[in-house]
Amino acid sequence: MLERYIKEATALQRYRSGPLGGFTDVLAVRFHERGYSPGSIYNLLRGIGHLNRYLVQRGIGHVGEMRPEHIASFLKDHLPNCACGHPNKGVFRGAPAAVRHTIEYLREQNLLRGFETADPSPDSVDGVLKRLDAYLGKVRGLSKSTRVHHRIVAKRFLDSRHNRFGALKLAEMTSAEVLDYSREALTVPWSLATKKGGLGHLRVFLRFLWWERILNRDLSRAVPSVIQWRLADVPKHLPFKKVRLLLNTPDTDTPMGKRDRAIMMLLALLGLRAGEVAALKLDHVYWREGRLTVPRAKASHQRSLPLPSEAARALADYLQHGRPKTQNRALFLRCRAPIMPLSPNAVTHLVRHNTRRAGITGTLHTGSHVLRHSLATLLINKGVPVKQISDILGHADIGSTCIYTKVDVRRLSEVARPFPALKEN
Length: 425
Prior knowledge:
Layout: H1 9-15, H2 24-33, H3 38-57, H4 68-78, H5 95-108, H6 125-138, H7 144-165, H8 175-186, H9 192-211, H10 240-247, H11 255-270, H12 274-279, E1 285-286, E2 291-294, E3 303-306, H13 309-321, H14 344-358, H15 369-381, H16 386-393, H17 409-415
Antiparallel strand pairs: 1-2, 2-3
């Protein structure tokens, strides 16, 4: 593989010698599999060669002798003041990225010493957050995406205490301090739902501190409640005409457009969450049976859904003509290097991008979830039973689906009593 990018025999010999010489061929294959262009791979290999030559000059003959200070010195001291002659003169563009890829690979192979990330102190912010994440996953059974939101709220609270006292001092916490922090949080210009969720996460964090015996009593009762009646709001949704406009927005002559349209088809026609789309793999599509298996997500259970023909055609078009050729089994991948699975945030952002391109306005929510709301609203208005809608959406509690019954204006008008006529005098 290295011969594809380095032609001269003397250069090949140089690249294959030194402490990194035994890994350049493997890294070249790795870059190729991740979808980098030949020009980018050439620049990355030259960056590796530059680092290799620097290590030789420092008397390092094996990667096991390499230390973090060598890498820091190469990036911060050597590159800005490089006086290397041929063949490394002026090779700076790909050097930082080349170093990052090299360290990543050597870590995976357990070939580095001194590069390990030390476990945070149990009493530090990171240490408390690590223990919280374990508690949320093992004791509470929360999904990875839900635990992220809990950690964000907990970190905001811990940082506030650290900035105020210079240390966490969790054991000395009082209910008055918790109440004061909660009142400050309520003054932030966020939506009522965001404030309610944040204070709910704060209660969970305080119960965790009690569980861990960091606190000698449960201070979660000091967090005030935010009054927001369940099912009080009508979910934001798009009329189906606008959903169809959105589905036709991506340019299907490009690989990215094929991917985006296939993703939005699954969001709009099956009501999938962004995390569920990101977790899909090639093995979850059963073409002969015409169904899609949705992996475990928020409700912690797997479900099987019929694959609509229109979504199947868009998905097949992407797989045949848009998906990068790679060994990765994830269904939806990045179109640009490095080739890797899409994240839930990427799914949300691509929907927002196409919503702006389509010129759709008039809704506060332009992410992927608005398509889920739109499907549920459409099904309710078509008279589909709530239980069937709940099964499609994967709600663990059918009560979560009942909020959509409020948007069936036609049926609400049928049960509304007529306005009493006024008697004439």
